[in-house]
Amino acid sequence: MKSFCSKLALFFMALLIVLCHSCDTTKQPAVEVPAEPSDIVAKIGDYLITRQMLERRLMTELSPDEEAIRQRGPVDAETVLRKMIAEKAMIIDAREKNYLQDDRLSALIKQFKEEKLINVLLGTHLRGKAVTVTKSEVEEKMKADPRLNRKRAAATLRREKVNKLIDQLYSELYKKFHVQKLRDNFPKAISIHRRLLFNAKDHLIMKFIRFEQVRNELTPQEKNIVLAKYDNGKVTLENWFDVLVDFSPPSRPKDLNTVEGVERLLDGVMRTSIFVSEAGARGLDRDKDFLKQVREREDRLLFSRIRREKLKDIKELTAEQTLAYFNKNKEGFAIAEMLGIAQIWCQDLKTARKARAELDGGADFESVGEKYSLEKKVRTINTYPIHEGMFFEDLWKGELNEVVGPVKGFYRPGIKWRVVKILEKKPRRLREYSSDVEDDVKISMWQEQRDAIMAEYRKELLEKYPHEIYAERITDIDPLDIP
Predict the structure, then answer these.
(1) Cα separation of 304 and 298, whole Å?
(2) Hey, how many other C-beta atoms are within 10 angstroms of the C-beta on 54?
(3) How many domains does the chain have?
(4) Which of 6-15, 30-39, 146-155, 309-318 has the lowest mean pLDDT?
(5) What is the per-residue pLDDT across 15-32, written as a single tens digit (0 to 9) for each?
């Protein structure tokens, strides 16, 4: 079935690429160093927040983004730490409300576990097995496919060899687990697939099967129809459909009205099931690193789910409300100030002061930049409040052709010192109300509602769940001095 580009196939292909680069290496995985007690700045439940985690979050909160133009709350260590604690409390709250039992969420976690276990299993199996490619093999491959250069031909050969090793492992496991396909049930799969596709209960125009249909329109008996069985396991029709609906509709197989099509999809499901069963038999599902990754995945999904739940009742806005909000906050929707600048990014404050001193002594801006800048060339750029965030105000104070600094600014993932020359200034301009402005107003009003709802929820959670902050360990944290 050449047109069937399934998610399973893509997953195994991506995994093969990774394993091709790692199966003949002796490099050991990095070992996570436990946090020292002095590094822990807060705890809630069994969650610990370290100083490093707090500093990374502070940088995220400071960095300008789409919301930088709006008024933000304070960005200091304690405020951000309390927000982080409250977010952990949201996850605790979601667990207490049994959100992990949600069908869609549990399916996503199951899929994550399976992919991780297969990754570890195949990585363990291939580790130490040399996958070598000879010069003659590469040349032969290039002759067979003139589109391949030497590097791509070698990579293709390595993938093929790794693929062969994995196929050999699967064949061994297929026999080991005594797999049996129950072909008598394949026609039932065809019939039920046709029913869900063409006779959906909600009569949607879009003719493809959805996750909710599998959960709600299959009877318990249909879900438990066994398509294949193996030692200590089975593949049911529900498992089969779960894989199908995880494909994007255009990539789903077109021949599921045939026994052959049903079996081909089943073969993909079986491959995952057998590898996962072998991983379990080897105890890989009890590995501490695996369990940690699963817990982190659950946390992310739970956080997103409970946040959506809290925000689902945000009210729609009327035209009168948006117009009134605009008239009250015209400055907030103006076309922002713009500065044309050239800047010399420096390694530290001492270097920035040297650069400024030479400029004050009459040196040329470009030549000083070549001497001190972290960049290869001094560039001229246009910048706005949304780019500079809290640092724009310092730049705006400068006059045309004036050198400003040393001042701080966002440089790559951190904050660095710089010396800036002001080349152009355009002041803020008010906008007239229009459909485009109305969209911006709605976004701002919705965000205000979201912020208010989440702020109140975080306050409730901090009162509900006991937590501890080690205030003495964060007193020296200055967001602007984080490396």
Answers:
(1) 10
(2) 23
(3) 4
(4) 6-15
(5) 554 444 444 433 344 444
**Are the CB atoms for 105 and 299 separated by under 8 Å?**
no
Please check whether residue 398 is in contact with residue 370, taking contact to mean a CB–CB distance below 8 angstroms: no
Same domain, 37 and 83: yes
Burial class of residue 343 in the structure, from the number of CB atoms within 10 Å of its CB (0-12 exposed, 13-18 middle, 19+ buried) = buried
d(CA 269, CA 162): 20
Residues 376 and 417 in one domain: yes
Domain of residue 9, residue span: 1-26+128-176
Determine if the peptide bond prior to 406 is cis (ω within 30°): yes
User: What's the residue count for the chain?
Assistant: 483
Does one domain contain both 145 and 60? no
Chain centre distance of CA 121? 24
d(CA 314, CA 443): 12
Tokens of 314: 């945000």
Quick check: is 101 in a domain? no
- Contacts with 12 (C-beta within 8 Å, 6 or more apart), sequence order: 166, 271
Residue 204 phi, psi dihedral angles, 5° rounding = -70, 150
Token output for 203:
């009569």
Structure token digits, residue 312:
């689902």
Amino acid at 449: Q
Say how many C-beta atoms besides its own lie within 10 A of residue 419's C-beta: 28
Q: Determine contact, residues 355/368, Cβ cutoff 8 Å.
A: yes
Q: In this predicted model, what pLDDT tens digit does every residue of 334-370 receive, in sequence order?
A: 998 999 999 999 999 999 999 999 999 999 999 999 9
Question: Do 185 and 277 reside in the same domain of the chain?
Answer: yes
Q: Is 410 helix (H, G, I), strand (E, B) or coil?
A: strand
> What 3-state DSSP class applies to 123?
helix
Residue 399, classed as helix, strand or coil, is coil
Q: For 164-185, what is the mean pLDDT?
A: 95
- Two tokens at 64? 């300008």
Distance CA 300, CA 297 (A): 5
- Identify the CA nearest to 210 among candidates 253, 248, 258: 248
Same domain, 395 and 451: no
Q: pTM for the full model?
A: 0.79
* Angstrom distance (rounded) from CA 4 to CA 264: 10
In 3D space, the residue among 278, 294, 17, 14 whose CA is nearest the CA of residue 125 turns out to be: 278
Q: Does any domain span residue 121?
A: no
DSSP single-letter state for residue 332: G
Sign of CA dihedral 179, 182, 186, 192: negative
